[in-house]
Structure prediction request, 335 residues.
Amino acid sequence: MNRGETTIRDTEVRVIEYSEGFYREDVIKDINQFSALTDKSKVTWIKVCGLLDREKITKLAEKFNIHPLTLEDILNTDQRPKIEEFYNYTYIVLRIFQFDPLEKELLSEQMSIIVGENFLISVEEKTNTAIQKIIDWIKSSRGIIRRMGIDYLLYLIIDEVIDGYFLVLEEIEDGLEELEDELTTNPTSSTLQAIHRFKRQLLQFNKNMWPLREVIGTLGRTGHRFIDNQTIPYFRDLYDHTVRVIENTETLQVMLSDMLDVYFSAVSNRLNEVMKILTMIATVFMPLTFIAGIYGMNFKYMPELEWVWGYPAVLLIMAGIGLWMILYFRRKKWI
Prediction:
């Protein structure tokens, strides 16, 4: 189970209605008994969690005259962030990202939002504590939320999603710092695999940030039918946050590219050290092999064959040559 998530076995439909002096929350068991007529003096938030019961979601879509293409996008959870305008609502797709610090894995799920004149429908794959927190704010009448309209609720939901992106990037950065320590001590093939895994995850993350920027930019432009002029500055602030997320992501991607260069440099340096030692050993034994080769020739008449001290003398000469060569290499700072 992911951090901040609770698995939903069934599809839960929760209706939250509120105004400055009113709050009501109900769980809808039977969609057939639910009326899509909403009180225009109140904000109506229909929060759907879980996609298992597709029939229930389909019936809810029919109640609000949701286009079949929108319903198809809601049920197929591989969509990228986007915004689509229909005659009676605006459809928005968001991606909720989380990072599992134990498995070092980037997790993603889809969140669909339908915004109408005085209602908002959000569809989540799983219950997320960040979104649940907004309900607590509404209950406690925190800040100005009870005095604002449906556009401000939309802002709060997107803001919580984007704030989660910063937490994801912080956890990825912590993982990269651990990799940096490993690079400077003992880089292995698993280090290379971890670098490639982080690189792939950041690429996936960044691919969803660019279309999200377009979504926020569209909502922040003056004249959107469901966005009041007094709420536009909030969406412009969201746009700045999205740009910061993109910049931080690109910074981490540059760090990964640098770490990849460091890894290959470290492996190359280690290989050079091994080759240097092997070359030194081969160089030291080259003259010794030459001497041993001479005395290994099967000639009958050799000057030292009848000398009683010949064998130890040759061994001593060979040892002296090897020691002299090692000292010479050290003096030249080759070893």
About this structure: Confidence is low (pLDDT under 50) at residues 1-8.
